[in-house]
Amino acid sequence: MRHSTRLPLYITIVTFFVAYAACIFQFPNMLSSRVVANLLTDNAFLGITAVGMTFVILSGGIDLSVGSVIAFTGVFLAVILRDTSIHPLAAFAIVLVITTVFGAAMGAIIYYLEMPPFIVTLAGMFLMRGLAYVLSTESVPITHEFYGWLQSLYWKAPGGGRFRITGLLMVLSFVAAAIALHRTRFGRNVYALGGSAQTAQLMGVPCARTTISIYAVSGGLAGLAGIVYSLYTSAGYSLATVGTELDAIAAVVIGGTLLSGGSGFVAGTFFGIMIMGLIQTYIVFDGTLSSWWTKIVIGGLLFTFIMLQKGLAWATTARIPRANVSAARS
Amino acid sequence: MAVDTPPVLHATGISKFFPGVIALDDVELALYPGEVHALLGENGAGKSTLIKCLTGAYSRDGGTILLDGKPIDPRDPLSSQAAGIGTVYQEVNLLPNLSVAENLYLGRQPRRFGMIDHRRMVRDARAVLAEYGLDLDPARLLSSYSIAIQQIVAIARAVELSGKVLILDEPTASLDRDEVQLMFSVIRRLKARGLAVVFITHFLDQVLELCDRATILRNGCVVGTRRLESVSQTEIVTMMLGRQLEAATKHHDAGPPGKLLLSLRGFARRGAIEPFNLDIHEGEVVGLAGLLGSGRSETCNAIFGAQAADRGTAELRGAPLQIPNPRAAIRHRFALCPEDRKTEGIVGDLSVRENIILSLQARQGWFRPLPRARIEEIAQGYVKALDIRLANLDTPIRLLSGGNQQKALLARWLATEPDFLILDEPTRGIDVGAHAEIIALIERLRAQGMALLVASSEMEELVAYSSRIVVMRDRRQVGELRGEAISPTSIIRAIAAEEEAVA
After folding, report:
1. Minimal Cα distance from B157: which residue of A?
2. CB-CB: which of A182, A196, A324 is closest to B95?
3. Which residues of B57-67 are buried (b: 16+ CB within 10 A; e: fewer)?
4. For B116, which of A185, A195, A202 is closest by C-beta distance?
5. Got the DSSP string for A50-82?
6. Residue A228 near residue A48, CB atoms below 8 Å
7. Is B215 helix (H, G, I), strand (E, B) or coil?
8. Residues of B in Cβ contact (< 8 Å) with A1
9. Which residues of A touch B (CB under 8 A)?
10. For residue B497, is pLDDT > 80?
11. Rounded CA gap, A301 and A307, in Å?
């Protein structure tokens, strides 16, 4: 019972390793640094998005706009690099400011107008997707040499795996988020909000600042994910990453975070992402399965993990002793 | 406690008006360091309003609050807490998803190099809680501990943050006996540390056991402040209820009761009602008397299965009976008119006719609708029999006056032709005329051979219709009055437990 909040995290981690072992058993080639490196590279943008989503869901909210924000970021970068001579680093800075401010604005609307996050971020989703269309309806290729240089940066591990800078960015995002969530007052306030916003307010948590920061973090990380995605595809396309927000939510939930907020770990989200990536890799290795099997398996996993959380919650509350009087008397 | 020292908190002339109501009228409250001060009064006396004015949850309309001699003007609970007034409510206002230590230190966690120092926080929390007599692991989740422990953690947080005045609003309401003692030991420690503690509760026993002084409120006014060692319990009850102990009103002779209908043995529900025995006969009205929170409604709900008893046995006409939920009770021809008709009884937007047949239809099953003519007959019959005044049967029930709503609710249950009718506060919030009619109706039903259990806070009313009165205090039966022994005075005495009730 002591570790009841960590149990879902452990279960996710164990699930990942068991699944990976099963994959290796069937396809021994999957045990290679290439597979691991590709897991990180292919899922980098989704992982970074899911980090932001973990903040939002821990606080009891939801952010449906992130998929559109990624697409907008990609199109924005592609268009600005095509039409101006601005350096990509400057363009990165501009787009990160835009997406962070956009997230903060949604957070402010959610807090001050007391609107449900679902509706506000749904509006944000349409808004960002629409803006991406306005910039360009076509897929715009990115051919800047700085992009080529960034893409050529990798560390070649023994076994041929190429660990790229985007994968590193994702891992760094997870580490930074874990520190922020567990070792700063802001992070603990995120959990407090997720426990009960009303109680948190009564206990002196700066709810306005925290809510706005949470959605700013989610928007900013979606922007970063957009940058990573543009590096990954070398293009900006307004129809890209439709539904990515749902993949991110699925990763967070599979990672053991309670959808109602207040309980969970960003490390779980990492393994949630890895499990989803592993399923895709398995399907590639198998070669005969339709890629839709990814969705089916993720659906099944999601359902299992929700059931698991329900069961754990039930088991924990059922076992609370009525009073610890004997231990407490002095 | 030393009265010659200046009060730590002195509120004078506190007034609060709500539209059409004077909630607090020129109230004075003085708290001295090292005392436990009870705030007493029936519901609606103004206890909560006073507390909310002190903590800034309400802005008061008049009066001054002096804390350590300096005027303060709290605008919200956080600012009053910063000034030195901490509050703990009945429902724990902490975060169950965080650890005990984090709940203690949220917003002021110890930090090292800008990062929260978890180890130090847990160590400090352990030391703080040890002062409250708790030896527990503060790294564990708050929700892994019982409500009593959570309540004490809430107290510890409030004291750590404020440290002068601690207001406890019904902290023991959902605790059982051992837990209450644990809570008391914590409060006594705080008292020894020189804090002024305000203790609000409906349990007079707890007040007498724990508190030094009491301020008694009634209808928004202070009736008096007394040192508890110098007053009797009867005096306090009289002050709270504001009733003169007049001679007994007329009491009818109900004659011998009929056959034994329902027999309860050791009936109890943890945290709600202590074990009790009760026999109810046909043609008998059993009154349930007691102060608010004494367990009257809980008894009614336990018998009806609304909050099912977890211990004890029941026999109906000698045959064993299980009442796990209201459906089972209704099947055995029980009926319960709940206390709060607005939230538990009427369906406001449905017509009077629909409200009346609701329970009968529910018992029939929804797939066997009552014929229209039969509905009309039943509804018309009861409207006439109970003299419910309305334009027509299609009127939404919320448009009716309180008394007529209550009668329509009664009609709903009478339509199921119950053998055993439980009425919880049948006359609350209705006018004098309707009041008399409902009392007459109870008498009529009894004469027809129905068994009734009526819980009420109106002593005169209980005296008027009860064949027997069971007196409750602190969720226990403390006495039973019969025949000539029934009078408002004897009920109040029994509540105050100054003399053993004569059976």
Report:
1. A203
2. A196
3. bbebeebebbb
4. A185
5. HHHHHHHHHTT-----HHHHHHHHHHHHHHHHH
6. yes
7. strand
8. 144
9. 1-2, 4-5, 179, 182-185, 188-189, 191-192, 194-196, 199-200, 202-205, 262-263, 316-317, 320-325, 327-330
10. no
11. 10
Residues of A in contact with B121 (CB under 8 A): none
Taking each helix axis from N to C terminus, what angle separates B372-385 and B402-414, rounded to the nearest 10 degrees? 130
Q: What was the pLDDT predicted at B248?
A: 38
* ipTM reported for the complex, 2 dp: 0.85
Q: Look at residues B280, B288, B355 and name the one whose alpha carbon lies nearest to residue B321.
A: B280
Does domain A7-315 match CATH 3.40.1170? no
Question: CB distance B144–A4 less than 8 Å?
Answer: yes
CB < 8 Å to B114, chain A: 184
Give B182's contacts in chain A (Cβ within 8 Å).
Answer: 323, 325, 328-329
Q: Which comes out higher in pLDDT, residue B236 or A70?
A: A70
pLDDT in tens, A76-102: 999 999 999 999 999 999 999 999 999
Q: What is the pLDDT of residues B195-206, one digit of tens each?
A: 999 998 877 778
Domains and CATH numbers, chain B: 9-241 (3.40.50.300), 259-333+419-503 (3.40.50.300), 346-417 (no CATH)
Contacts of A323 in chain B (CB under 8 A): 146, 148-149, 175-176, 178-179, 182
In chain A, domain spans: 7-315
Instruction: Find out whether B295 and B269 touch, Cβ atoms under 8 Å.
Output: no
Residue carrying the six token digits 């501009």? A94
Q: Are B376 and B368 in contact (CB under 8 A)?
A: no
Give the closest of B175, B182, B270 to A328, CB-based.
Answer: B182
Bridge partners, A141 (sequence order) = A235
% pLDDT > 90, chain B: 14
